[in-house]
Fold this sequence. Notes:
The complex is a heterodimer. Chain A is mainly α. Chain A is about 55% helix and about 10% strand. Chain A contains 4 helices and 2 strands, in the order αααββα. In chain A, strands 1-2 form a two-stranded antiparallel sheet. The longest helix of chain A has 18 residues, at about 80-95. The model of chain A has no long low-confidence stretch (mean pLDDT about 90). By secondary structure, chain B is mainly alpha-helical. Chain B has 9 helices and no strands. In chain B, helix 5 (about 90-115) packs across helix 6 (about 115-145) and helix 6 (about 115-145) packs antiparallel against helix 9 (about 170-190). The interface of A and B includes residues 22, 23, 47, 65 and 70 of A.
Amino acid sequence: MLGVFEQAVLLAVVRLGEEAYGRAILIEVQERLQRDVSAGAIQATLARLEQKGLLDSRLGPGTEIRAGRPRRFYRIGPAGSRALNEAHGAVSSLWRGFRPRKGYA
Amino acid sequence: MMSDPPPVWADAWLRLLLPARDVDTVSGDLMEEYRENVRPTRSRLAADTWYVQQVSRFAWRIWAWGLVLAALYVSRMAYDWFVPTSNFAPRAEVTTLIMISTLLVVGASSTLRTRSIRAGVISTASALIVSAVLSAMALAFIYMNWRSPAMLAAIQGSGGLTEAFTMPIIMIIPGTIVGAIGATIAWFRSPSKPRSTD
């Protein structure tokens, strides 16, 4: 089962599509979670998700602002999509039939 | 301003700590964020502080190992100061064995994670430096708060105050060598083929 942070990172990869590389993922996750997130936490999570086979990565060219250092672009794999769907299903089933009241939502 | 580079030493430290495959990509991500978002909106000092903080978070394991090493050393010192003995050999043997084992693990674990012997050596040295600072602070705290004639006698009997404070600094070089041994063993015994020998 994916943790909340792992879900946030995977969703960021899906949302960013072809532009899903480390820094873009960091910014997307920070905006969605509305809190400061360290680049180290994103990097560790990406590495873990890739090791689990949920993400694939490829190298892209560097740019001047990065001193020519390459970007690593991520793409969700079939196992990652399944894991996200399962996580969504689990959360949805938790909330099913529950009517949000003031103070909850 | 866009071309302002982040602190060279912090960038170099980050590159030493990262797994070989991520050295350029991750340091490039941080440099891009620094140049495009952070530096244009902050003073040089604030932007550099942000960068160093980001690098420090990559190195959280070093802080953790530094804390473990400091705890080991301070525990031993406190034991000698509060429970004096005339025969230090058994205590010294146990402490030395635990310390060597810990340093081997520090070097090995970093090498297994990064697949780089160099990272194992740098991590061990960094953890020992952190440990020296933390140990000095902890020993000063103990000394200032529990100083008594009995404790002063125990301190003298166990090598003196100067030795207690300088030992963690003296240990940095031999400790790093032990970490390097752990790193080398881990590199050769790594189940997955290491990517880098540096």
